[in-house]
Amino acid sequence: MNKDSINANLIANKEWNKTYDNLWDKEIKYDDWLDSFKEYIENTNKPIIDLGCGFGNDTLYLRKMGKEVIPCDYSEIAIKNVKENFPDIKRVECFDMTKGLPFTDNCTDVVIADLTLHYFTKEDTFMILDEIKRVLNKGGVLFLRVNSVEDVNHGAMQGEEIEYHLFKTSDGRYKRFFDEDDIDFFFKDWKKLYVNEESMKRYKEEKILWKCAFVQL
User: Fold this and answer.
1) How many CB atoms lie within 10 A of CB 140?
2) Which CATH number applies to 3-215: 2.60.40.10, 3.40.50.150, 3.30.360.10, 1.10.1740.10?
3) Mean predicted lDDT score pLDDT of the chain
4) Segment 123-180, tens digit of pLDDT
5) Which of 34, 115, 155, 208 would suit a FRET pair with 194, their CA atoms being 20 to 30 Å apart?
6) How many Cα neighbours within 13 Å face the side chain of 8?
7) Contact criterion met (CB below 8 Å) for 141 and 46
């Protein structure tokens, strides 16, 4: 990881803490995006890793399905809120994904990364994906959503372009936007289960994103 990437990660930590501390609506909300993959979620008895859990939207969904979840986030404020909202959860992790995942090899069948994997350089993105592969069992599934290049309501293609489709925002964070070729590029070593460009209405303005599922080969 280069110096600029390290600085961007430090800025990201500060800004995410600020975001979660100041957010006016802290109610946990989830949409139905994981319904498409219900059979895979129902068939695992292992803890599900929820990367970039935020306030716990997907954690709540998974808990309502009766699943054991390990919520993870880079923001200490987000993790504090998750602990308060889910006091019965056995394990919660706060860490920087660019330094690896604090899990043993082949420890889970399912990893969730909802609006989580689009904040990194190409090098860091591939490293994180390798780490996700490491913790997944063979045949395990990664369910994710990432920004689309069509996501104009949420800053698509704005700011200083650091890498192709990776931009530095006004607050110093990195933000990547994906087209279909980008999805194919970053996930070329995974088996494609589902890939589709969709919209989400959780926020005040419509968000355009890629909803995907990939299998660990």
Assistant:
1) 21
2) 3.40.50.150
3) 90
4) 999 999 999 999 999 999 999 999 999 999 999 999 999 999 999 988 888 999 999 9
5) 155
6) 20
7) no
Structure tokens at 154: 């949420």
CA distances from 117 to 39, 66, 89, 106, 137 (A): 24, 26, 24, 20, 20
Output 18 or 51, whichever has higher pLDDT: 51
Distance, in Å, from the CA atom of 146 to the CA atom of 167, rounded to the nearest integer, reads 14
pLDDT-derived band at 16 (thresholds 50, 70, 90) equals: very low
- Half-sphere exposure of residue 216: CA atoms within 13 angstroms, side-chain side: 22
- How far, in Å, are 59, 78, 139, 166, 170 from residue 158 at the CA level? 31, 26, 37, 9, 9
Q: What is the pLDDT of residue 10?
A: 53
What mean pLDDT do residues 9-25 have? 51
